């Protein structure tokens, strides 16, 4: 886009945009002069600017030049036989025209202050989805809106050319590059804002100016107002945090990031390189590659020799977590965890790069493992101290972009432990007391049993004997009580009892119908008096004992 500005009071101290396909007349203001730009007519005591001094014409954009970042529209300056002439880059062109070939040109009208015509490219790099990229021309729609305005639209991110990245999400590979290089990221609505700023205020008037042609800086859309919507980001940041910052260009200086996933490597390699870092790809063979091999590669990348692969030997080398597909997914997670344990260094997620870039600090990506409270068994049984946080190998907390580790990643074998704490065992049986008193149990006495037996009626039988917890309850009531207990324990007991009663009643009714005249009562079984038999047995034993005492008297 061609921008015209003045070093003095010309143009009211504003910068203006020159639209492609339009010719602008500059000169001393007067009625019906057709001068589009008013320039002060006097400098000192003399008149130096003619009423129609010169014209600046910008050619139309050549089709498809909207995708060529180095293509520029042609600009022609023509002096209209002005009284004092026009100087272009120090050369007098009175009554002549000059086609500009440079990106920046100084123009002086007479002896007044000079103007500066400058080419300021606007290149939008678009981050399309895989579905959009499969179309024949993904840029066709946006090019139809922006190409005639001298605004470039491309797909790749070019460090020295891209001015804005258009995307639907904040955290993309191209977006990270833009943030590192101090370029804004915007949503698709930014395109509509640009079109609005370049639309003339009066459609019916061919000479009407658009907002950008009147005041470029004031009418240019503010990129911070068109920031893409936040996605699944663990940290909610204001729009101002995504503004351009030149300090980010050295964010990865001295750091090396090792990738096991080729897709991750391709996406983030450019961003890491832009931040003065280094990205390396290790060819992982699913189910075959070992943690020792990855650690050895990391150690070599750090320029250190040795076999342990401890943190002090690795320098600023960091492994980015990779995930294999299908049956090897769990295997890849375990390999990364083993590398973390062997190196005493966190394995980071690719989403953490955004936080490091926005904070202009990559040190959170290269941290040692947090100390654990103990082994996995101890962690499951013990409670950590209030001042300590129990974390695992995949802890991503900190100022960087963190995400909770999946459940399968948290179940990590902790064969190497920083510290082991064993809680002192305190038995609660020392103070156990349920109020039970052993002395409250009465002492068994044979005489008491005998006295209780003598109190029972002599004619009591087995069927009439009382139970220990039921003194003289009838047998029928005892059977009913037993049935109630059974019914409460067995869901179908009540139904079975009812069915049995119905069957018994049916049998009784049948016998009554057929043998009603010859019903003979069933003989009862003779009852045995247990208590009486026991008393007789004790009397016999007592008599036998007395006879033995008389036969063998005790000698004193």
From TrEMBL:
Where do the segments described as Disordered lie? Answer: 368-420, 448-519, 535-556
UniProtKB keywords: DNA damage, DNA repair, Nucleus
Q: Per the record's keyword annotation, is Lipid biosynthesis included, yes or no?
A: no
Q: Please provide one cellular component term from the Gene Ontology annotations of this protein.
A: Mre11 complex
- Extract the Pfam families matched here: FHA (PF00498), NIBRIN_BRCT_II (PF16508)
Q: Where is the composition biased (Acidic residues)?
A: 476-485
Where, if anywhere, are coiled coils annotated? none
CDD domains named among the record's database cross-references? FHA_NBN
One annotated GO molecular function is: damaged DNA binding
GO BP of this protein: double-strand break repair via homologous recombination; mitotic G2 DNA damage checkpoint signaling
Listed Polar residues bias regions: 373-386, 394-411, 452-474
Which segments constitute the FHA domain? 24-93
The record's subcellular locations are:
Nucleus
Where does the record place Basic and acidic residues bias?
535-549
Note the superkingdom of the native organism: Eukaryota
Q: Which PROSITE patterns match?
A: FHA_DOMAIN
Primary localisation category:
nucleus
> Member of which family?
Belongs to the Nibrin family.
The protein's name is FHA domain-containing protein
Species this protein is from: Penicillium malachiteum
